[in-house]
Amino acid sequence: MKTMQDINKKKVPAVRIDPALNKYNDVTLFPEKLEKANAQLKKSGLPKPKKHRS
Length: 54
Description:
The chain is mainly α. 37% of the residues lie in helices and 0% in strands.
């Protein structure tokens, strides 16, 4: 079994994504949670970006 140090030395990802999961690309898996999150974003809004001094 490889240790994390061995894995970190190589340029190979430690986790591989299973290509069988591609069938979920265009599917909303949790529509209730999506509706709830969208409602919360509408109420609170997004933070205003800060202007950086140059």
